[in-house]
Amino acid sequence: MPELEHPQSVSDLLKNKSLETAGSLSSQVFSILKELIISLQLRPGQMISEKEVAEALKASKTPVREAMIRLQGIGLVRVVPKSGTYVTPIQVNRYIEACFARQQLEIGAVRRAAVQQNWNANLQMESLIQKQVQALKAGEDEVFFQLDEALHKSFFEAAGVPGVSSLIRDSQAEVNRMRYLKRLHNIRREDAIIEEHQAIVAAIRNGSPDDAEAAMIRHIGSLDQEVEQLASHAGLLEFIEGLNSGRFKHRA
What positions does the domain HTH gntR-type occupy (predicted)? Predict the structure, then answer.
């Protein structure tokens, strides 16, 4: 079972964070809290006080409240009337639903991209894959997965429907939290991811929608494959149950 540090207070987690004067304050608060939840620094069931967040970030309550509303909208927090705002439990069913939505939308995107033939977008995708290779060699996990998200977003840009990527982004919070958990359990496949990305982009560049779809299915996998993978890692499911119930596991 992976080792986790004891959960910290919201104030402690935010003590080294600050907001930039330029840009949306609520978006910055949203991004900070989202990252803390996805990385399990804010645990399922942990209370997030608007007042505490506002004081720690030296902000008014308005942008904090707006950020909380956005977090609730993507399923990372829930508001309990007359009680407070709490990090939601990790929900495997929501993860499976998000995988389904991503699969259907991205298959459509790569098929259309193969027909559209946006050469600038093709070059951008190839560049992102090369950067992923470099990040993998350097052991930069966070950079690797940021590039992964950028590449998947570029599929929609290559298809000429960039706005559709926001539909996936808003449903991916549980996917990203599960991705972090898989890394904790050493369920990793970065080398395979790069090869699969290369196959998708090659099919798009060659103008083959069928090959692009097949490569995307191999990359994302079917829902049955995803369920089988989760079922084969009983320790991961046990760990999720422990997190959701507040039984944080620590091993020397």
Answer: 23-90
